[in-house]
Write a structure and sequence with these properties.
Layout: H1 2-29, E1 32-36, E2 42-52, E3 58-67, E4 80-84, E5 89-92, E6 102-103, E7 108-112, E8 115-120, E9 123-128, E10 134-137, E11 142-144
Parallel strand pairs: 1-6
Antiparallel strand pairs: 1-2, 2-3, 3-4, 4-5, 7-8, 8-9, 9-10, 10-11
């Protein structure tokens, strides 16, 4: 009778551990929004500033958008443009990509606090109302401002 009790206790412990990690994952991912343009060529992840770096400092509001048509380099990853609400724009070729999300229809503006992104058939424009910096991304051109 002791063996089944030990097995049952181990099974309950495993279920509690799985449930806890699932809830923790849900809580942490709720701070991130994922979207893409209707063409699927541009995809973005936006963070609300509650995520923290290893030193415990809040990361601040930010958005990172990948242009799929720019894929290349040694590993085939596309370029990404990163904007923080109180900073400028950086361009990189990260070794990851965006998380799938819903489409931001043409003519629609997404906003979170001081970050904005407007989707048009000509491309995606994202900017910070705090800094005035931003970027415009399309299949044909990408620029910072």
């Amino acid at each position: 009778m002791r063996v089944p009790l030990v097995v049952a206790a181990a099974a309950v412990s495993a279920l509690v551990a799985v449930g806890s990690s699932s809830l923790a994952g849900t809580a942490s991912t709720s701070h991130v929004v994922h979207f893409h343009t209707p063409s699927g060529n541009i995809a973005c992840n936006a963070w609300n500033g509650q995520l923290r770096h290893g030193n415990g400092v809040p990361s601040g509001e930010s958005i990172e958008c990948w242009v799929v048509s720019t894929a290349g380099g040694p590993y085939g990853f596309p370029y990404a443009w990163h904007l923080q609400s109180r900073g400028g724009v950086t361009k990189s070729r990260p070794s990851d990509g965006p998380t799938p999300g819903g489409a931001l229809p043409y003519g629609t503006t997404w906003q979170r606090r001081d970050l904005r992104c407007t989707s048009k058939s000509t491309g995606l424009k994202c900017w910070s109302t705090s800094s005035g910096h931003g970027f415009f991304l399309s299949r044909d051109s990408q620029r910072r401002f």
